[in-house]
Design brief:
The structure is a homodimer. Chain A contains 13 helices and seven strands. Chain A is α/β, with parallel strands linked by helices. Chain A has two domains: about 230 residues, P-loop containing nucleotide triphosphate hydrolases (Rossmann fold, 3-Layer(aba) Sandwich), CATH 3.40.50; about 30 residues, no CATH class. The first copy, chain A, has a seven-stranded parallel β-sheet, sandwiched between helices. In chain A, strand 2, helix 5 and strand 3 form a beta-alpha-beta unit. The first copy, chain A, is globular and about 60 Å long. At the A-B interface, helix 3, helix 6, helix 7, helix 8 and helix 11 of A face helix 3, helix 6, helix 7, helix 8 and helix 11 of B.
């Protein structure tokens, strides 16, 4: 694996390298270090929302608009796959086929693999790769409304949160978790009953929650399935990107990533600990977990 | 903080201790070690599903049924709060008030605090506390369908996944992530249009995905808002609990927790690293992140 073909825009090398980075992050480090001086041009937009909110459809239309502008678009779709099944990756192949003949689009799905920290790190690694390869817009799509999204939102320069009418107490969920990560709210399926009410609720929630950076998140209507409102969504995202503050956000993202990278590396020293056997001992009441951890720390000293 | 009042069933001590454990996990360790020999009686049931699926309503009715049976019920509600806001805890006070006069119910909400590992660990700590305090059924309620739920599902002995008709491609999400964590599917709002179709889809998904443990998840209809189907839900959960395999699950849970505890402790050695400053350096392109991590590891050696 070498940096040169990536920097030269070789898409086959890019695909191979993406797989390599995802499967063998440690071994990919020298390559990422080579790519690192070449990054910083891409703008990253995160797209999140509950299953069924229409994220993939919105992303597909965004790709089209961005391609019409002549931009090169990378898509990282983060799939909430089970750590036990190994992760079935849906939609990826369908999309890859749709844009197969377009060298200006690169789509990559990633499964969660049972390690959240690892996933945010893997997403960052992938943005380094795509940024260095000259993709100037990177869309990061995540499913769900949990901690994953908060972590991955940190990687993006701007985050869109999709909402749809009729999900009951979704604005409650908003207040509790999504409020701070949304730079733009997209009210998708805005032709459904309840769209007006949802918009009012979101506006009310936005006006109540003063953000530390002074930004008041835009609320944009869309009907992604019909391609309506997509330009407004992009405009709103760009307004947020244009107002600055990106450097601070990137710095915070790297601070979080550095902490994770250190954590992963440091755990390597405990590679010979048999956690499964220890878990059985604790479950049977033979050992207490705190004493076990103390022992491991002392042994490693 | 002492174990004696907890073991004696003092609810005020319990509430104080729960706060202490959540806020100062490290300092709470000696207490948790004292409580550890007294756990193992409680059965833990996880309840998860998208926002608006009706989890809180279901949990409320489950509490009532369990209380009618004379059981003591602990509830741990995990809130997907933002790490930036510090976490607004919703619903907790409302519920606490509802069961305020009932010494047989203890409700505790926990925010996510920006650290998933920490949250699963905190949930485990809380189950140790409630188990030792004599709560024989512990309900663990989580919001969302992401990695959080998978992690927290590991803590529970049985996991209920709530689905509601009309969420579009929710069964897709199922296939990708929720399939393996659901021991029982609850089709809530089963009076809505689309319930039959959803049930068929879930059954089809269940029949396709053979679980390693041979269990075929039950699919139960309910209308939680009217209290219908709650007894069926409990019966299904108990059928799963009764079939054994709990020891293996508990052992796996502890293995995961031990790994996390070690991970948290190990980072303590790097307490003087200024991640924020390092993040700024990396964002500005002055340092590369991999070199920084190497330096820190070498310094700590």
């Amino acid at each position: 694996m070498h940096a040169a073909p990536i920097l030269a825009g070789d898409l086959r090398a890019l695909a191979r390298t993406a797989t390599f980075i995802e499967n063998r992050p440690r071994e990919a480090e020298p390559l990422l270090r080579e790519l690192f001086p070449h990054i910083g041009r891409a703008r990253m937009i995160g797209i999140t929302g509950a299953p069924g909110a229409g994220k993939s459809t919105l992303v597909d239309h965004m790709i089209r608009l961005l391609r019409d502008e002549g931009r090169r678009v990378g898509v990282i779709a983060v799939d909430p796959s089970s750590p036990w099944s190994g992760g079935a990756i849906l939609g990826d192949r369908v999309r890859m086929q749709r844009h197969h003949d377009d060298a200006g689009v690169f789509v990559r799905s990633m499964a969660t693999r049972g390690c959240l920290g690892g996933l945010a790190r893997a997403t960052t690694d992938m943005t380094v790769l795509l940024d260095a390869a000259g993709f100037d817009t990177i869309l990061i799509e995540t499913v769900g409304v949990g901690q994953d999204e908060v972590e991955i939102a940190r990687v993006a320069d701007a985050t869109l949160v999709l909402l749809v009418p009729g999900l009951g107490d979704d604005v409650q969920a908003l207040k509790a978790g999504i409020m701070e990560i949304a730079d733009v709210f997209v009210l998708n399926k805005a032709d459904l009953a309840g769209a007006d009410r949802l918009k009012q609720e979101v506006r009310a929630a936005v006006s109540l929650a003063a953000r530390a950076d002074g930004w008041s998140p835009a609320v944009v209507r869309a009907v992604a399935s019909e391609g309506r409102g997509i330009a407004d969504v992009l405009t709103a995202a760009r307004e947020y990107l244009a107002r600055g503050g990106r450097e601070r956000r990137t710095a915070e993202n790297w601070a979080a990533r550095l902490r994770e990278m250190l954590r992963e590396r440091v755990l390597d020293r405990f590679g010979d600990v048999d956690f499964a056997a220890a878990g059985t001992d604790v479950a049977a009441g033979r050992r207490d977990p705190w004493a076990l951890v103390e022992e491991w720390l002392n042994d490693a000293r």
